Amino acid sequence: MRIPAHEWEAPPGTPLPAGGSHTSSGQLIWLTLLIGVATIPHAGTAAPWVLVALLIAVVWRLGAALRRWPLPGTAFRVILTIVGSLGIVIDYRRISGLDAGSALLILMLALKLLETHSARDRSIIILIAWFVLFASFLREQSLISVPQLAAGVVIGTLALAQSARPAALLTTTRGLQTTGRLLLHALPLALALFLLFPRLPGPFWALPKQSDAAQTGLTDQMSPGDITALAQSDEVAFRVRFNGPTPKPAELYWRGPVLEKFDGRSWRARPDSVRNLQAAPADYEPTVVAGQPVYHYEITLEANQRRWLLPLETPIAWDAPGSRLTGTLELLSKHPVDSRMAWRGESIAAGEFNHSTRPDPANLELGKNMNARSIELGQTLRRAASSDEAYLRQILRMFREQAFFYTLKPPALRNNPVDEFLFTTRAGFCEHYASAFALLARSAGIPARVVAGYQGGQQNPVADYLIVRQSDAHAWTEVWLNGRWIRYDPTAAVAPERIENGLEAAFPDTSRNSLPLLGTGPWLERLALSWDAINATWDRWVLAFGPDQQAALLQRLGIKAPSLRDIALVCALAVCVMLALFSLLGMRARPDRSDPVDMAWQRLCRRLGKLTRPRQAEEGPSEYAAAVAALRPDLEKTILAIANEYLHLRYDTTPTPAQIRAFSQRVRKLHLPTVPVPG
């Protein structure tokens, strides 16, 4: 893009008013471009009137520059500020938070644009636009947002360079070159700050949570239809990378909430006040079969506002900070997972374990005056069975051999849901079968509970990890037999293909194609998995880089158990070393031999240094020319003219070969008397 010179560049050698008190149309065009890039991501969330106000302000300010429209006075701008702020409060019912704060920044951008005259005003506009730009990154941090953010940084830096120009603007090519050099110089410092700046636990910038924000995932209660709704979502719940052997698909049970309270319809987890008293004992060890492998893995959880860390059943070690294992083997975080979180663990894929909380009366609750036919059926079958194990096998055989159906669209259940499911509809999803199995076990006096979590996962061959989606949500049952809890999954009796090969095997019409608008096909599936692998790498190494990863990095550098103070000191030291290195390199920088204009100026400075005094390293061309003129008034007019010509050729334009030759010859032929010539 190149804007005609007559629209945005002052004639060569024509300085703008001192201090840059005039804003040219070219500078306004760069500011407008930056504002557009910064606000486009907010188009779907900001109130329409806020965006309209910004558009009016942009048109008004450009009209003032190009058509001499009058700008609003101070009193009118004050009124607009008050009315706009009240509008934000009324529309968003708050003035803080991501959405309301972003809208307020956009409104400030519009109002400040109407009083932009000086370089200081332009710098404030750019600063506000950068805040608006980064606010969009707080809302969407996926890799797809990076190009837009990078474009905003480049355009913002270029607009800052142009807004500070006291004379004609840089050409677009020269401006991009300058911006590229600045950003390349800043890159090492940015990397050091990313790795070493102290990270605090919690969401990015500790933004307040939106109370009305939608939450997708497991909850601490389950009713018929809850997990069925999750199973129709392709949203990623977490990703898992195994270090070593990978369990078989039928062994991939990711343990979430344990639901023990039953009221006849819904299953609920015990409240935290009870779970806090049910911590796993210090000697907890799962039942390990001789030769059974231990699986090492790393989980990257998506933000879900829940506390379950969803380990592979059954966990034996983990490094998630502030986490604890309850007596029901729920691995809980101290705080809800409100940002991406990565942790490592070890598990054995065991379906039974001991040394955990023993059953109590809650594990035998049947619900009051509900599901009488199911309870009677269970008691009848148990009397005919030779043992508890035989009775439970008979229930599974009933599900497998009789006319029970596994479906994503089960009929609605009313007052006695288990009775209606077992004797009428006989069609359901995993929660229907798990609930019915647990109630039948309890009716025979066998303690039972329902476990919710995820089962299986989609292998991504591009980067060798598992993608576990909300559609992999699952529920199964645990019963107390022979002094230990044993997993029974009645879904495996009805739809074994669901457990062995995932939801798509049970429902072939279900597609996980992430690009549905482009159709379906193997190459599109491969494309979707490749894109997910790229995003997973971004999530793992950038978004999930938190306090624990930072502490691990410092430990590898030799700082054991680093405190927040240690991290801050290391960060400050790294920044100081880099700044000192940049300063040293700048002082030792030699003139660019490929730039004849600069070489000619350097030769002139050396001649003037012998005649008056040497140029100091921190002195710019204008400053040095003024100092020489003060010492030799007879040379003032000549030296200032050459300095202005040098600045124009070096920074304001791309000089032609003829201009370069003329400048070099003028400097070479310049006569410098050794003594002042009387004026």
Low-confidence stretches: 1-21, 203-215, 513-519
Helical content band: 40-55%
Strand order, largest beta sheet: 7-10-6-2-16-15
Give the N-to-C terminal Cα separation: 50 Å
Tell me how many strands there are: 18
Describe the sheet with the most strands: 6 strands, antiparallel
Average of per-residue pLDDT values:
83
The 3D shape can be described as: elongated
Percentage beta strand: 5-15%
Please report the number of helical segments: 24
Cα-atom radius of gyration: 35 Å
Q: What structural category arises from helix and sheet content?
A: alpha+beta
Secondary-structure blueprint of this entry?
Layout: H1 5-8, H2 25-39, H3 48-67, H4 74-92, H5 98-113, H6 119-139, H7 146-163, H8 172-196, E1 221-222, H9 226-230, E2 236-242, E3 253-259, E4 261-262, E5 267-268, H10 272-275, E6 295-301, E7 315-318, E8 324-325, E9 331-332, E10 341-347, E11 352-353, H11 372-384, H12 388-401, E12 405-406, H13 417-425, E13 427-428, H14 430-443, E14 448-455, E15 458-460, E16 465-469, E17 473-481, E18 484-488, H15 491-494, H16 496-501, H17 503-506, H18 522-543, H19 547-556, H20 564-588, H21 596-611, H22 621-631, H23 636-652, H24 657-668
